[in-house]
Amino acid sequence: MGRDEGRAVRRYLEALEAHKPKRGRKRTPESIQKQLKSIEQKLDSSDSLTRVLLIQQRMDLERELAAKEAVVDLAALEEDFVRAAKRYGERKGISYAAWREAGVDAAVLRRANVGRGAG
């Protein structure tokens, strides 16, 4: 049971981190595709050092594109977290403040029966 709770907590926290709003202009799949096309055009005429940098940039963009296209059921992960968080947090000594600083919404903690005095 402890491993299942740990897995539920980890998956939810990782999903929160991955979907955290980032500063600046948001990249769309279309803008990423446009950058990839530009890189492909530059590869043939680049020197060896520039080529390796472009290859890495292409790999990073492809990874970002795959992550954007991956569907994450945040609601299901949240439900699993709600079921596991109280016992997991008590066992590991995780306070309400630590959960909040990690990005867990207060309403989610309330649903999980994790109070401000927890930890």
Number of helices: 6
Uncertain regions: pLDDT < 50 for 5+ in a row? none
Q: Helices and strands: which structural class?
A: mainly alpha
**Considering DSSP H and I runs of 4 or more, what fraction of the residues is helical?**
over 70%
The radius of gyration is: 20 Å
- Tally of discrete structural domains: 2
Say how many strands there are: 0
Strand content: under 5%
Largest sheet entry: none
**Average predicted confidence as pLDDT:** 90
Q: Give the termini distance in whole angstroms.
A: 20 Å
Describe the structure.
The chain is mainly α and 119 residues long. It folds into 2 domains: 1-19 and 73-119, no CATH class; 26-71. The protein has 6 helices and no strands. It starts with a helix and ends in an 8-residue tail after the last helix.
Helix-strand blueprint:
Layout lengths: L1 H17 L10 H15 L4 H22 L4 H19 L3 H6 L4 H6 L8
Compact overview of the structure:
The chain has 119 residues and is an all-alpha fold. It has helices at residues 2-18, 29-43, 48-69, 74-92, 96-101, 106-111.
Q: How would you describe this structure in keywords?
A:
119 residues, mainly alpha
